[in-house]
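Work Package 3 (structural annotation) set out to generate three-dimensional models for the target panel prioritized at the project kickoff. During this period the team completed the workflow that converts sequence records into discrete structure tokens, so that structures can be stored uniformly alongside our sequence database. As a representative example, we reproduce one entry of 572 residues exactly as it appears in the project archive.
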Amino acid sequence: MSGALRLIILATIMAAISLTVEAEFATIRVPQNFGCSNGRKDGLFRHRDVSACKGTWEGHVRDAPLCSLGWHVCSWNDTEQLSGISWYQTVHIEGCYAINAANRGDLCTECSSENDDLAGIGADCPHQNQNDRSCFGRGKVTASSRMFRHRPCEHKPWMTGVVCCRDRRKGSTPIITVSPVSSVQSPAGVEIVLKCKAVASPLPEITWYKNGFQVNTVGVTVEEVAQDKLVYSKLRISPLADDVEGLYMCKAENRHGIAVSYTSDVTVIQARPKLVACRDKAKQSLLHGGVIAACGGKWKGTVKKSSKQLCAKGWHVCGLRDRSILNKLTWAETVSLSGCYAYDAATSDHFACNRCSRRLKGNSMAGIGANCGSLERSKTSCLNKGRIGVWQKQFLEGGNSTDEFDVTATVQDGVSAKTRSSCRYHRGVTTGVMCCKKKGSKRKDPVCSPGCENDGVCRVGNFCECPAGRSGFRCEVLNTAAHGKKCATPCGPNSHCNRKGVCKCDKGFKSTKNSCIPRKNRSKGKNRGRRCRGVNCQNGGRCSRGSCICPPLFTGQYCETAFVDQSQLTLH
């Protein structure tokens, strides 16, 4: 970035915040709600609720018209705000600014009599003592002393102005205590309810927004209940409302501030009427858009064995491994289903979600439906909200549960304790089972990195299967021999030209610098003729196991070298 461009950006930022430097000290031009009636803050720039304001006044210091609307001249009641000013700032700020307080020994009271010393801050104030105590805590600064004997609480020529403090309002900013749920997946044709709670004084006003705009859609109603400092709001979205899906949030606002809740992502799941989840489609009830189904009928054995009896192909009885599907059901869906449908899980006061087994004492087979034995909305289970048990919950003596949300069906008379602890079908209690879609194994296509070239096919293990005429790690090598071309040089004995156009030794031979020699083999008589194929021994030598056995006076690989000249030999 060039220096000229940096200067332009800096000038733009300075103009945006209206920063002006005047004389030797900086004067920041700010809105009037920052303290001074002249529209600027003349001192104590780092303090939000305290400001030093220049000017003169007539009469008592409390009547000085130098503070803006919402501010007042700091007095002996503002010790909490004044105590935030350090002693260094108190004695180093230029000028002398008065405070409506009197320094009487170690006390901090209002300046009211001729015998009071008017408190203040500033380097030009007449008296400064760090060892005394005042409205600031440690240290005392006097703007006008009683030694002058004439109205010490009024303006004096050496005074620069007054110290202004922000008015303190009674009440509190809103706090969102209950936000709408982060994600709502509702089947089509079901009413959606979002909740929001806020606490504040005075009572806040709650407004609902969708995708950043205030909700005003036809079919959407808002219900509010106010009590003391709490406001409870419900947003009801009718099934007939248009364009239900979106991001919803609530905002609480009063004169002290604003609070915004977390967003709630609302989606609508369309029903699939052609979906078959039960063997008997006439007794099938799809929930939550078809991700789970209630299948009516009776079964033999435990509920775990009912998959092949009641669920269709590709479906099984819901169990612990299907908690992600069970958590999608809302409380309204679970209690609006007529009947009582069991699934392979159990609930108890000790374990919220456990496997269904008669060996686990205290467990009760879990189910879904309005006619189940016990419905406890405030409890936890494998469901997203509430606990539903197939059998009647046995309470202690003295009555039923104290939870106002709990609903208890009629007691199942004539049922033995052994049957209650089992996970089996019982006529008149269980209507059927809950079936969930099986999770098929997803095969992932093999990935080769880098990719295969020249029409090569990627296989598992980062391996490329090359077509005819290609080879290499990524099929990048062209095999010249495969296209009818010969090797550049003729291959020697016991070798051949391979697909890459390179001479390679035959099987049973190993390569040396310039030839192929036979490998050592302990087997007798095996491949003996093949080893001598192409070996031409000279001067009467004979081939044995791929090597030449030379006659006397000859040597070499093929007996081609003589020790001496034969014409000089003398026979005796």
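The CA atoms of residues 372 and 520 lie 84 Å apart.
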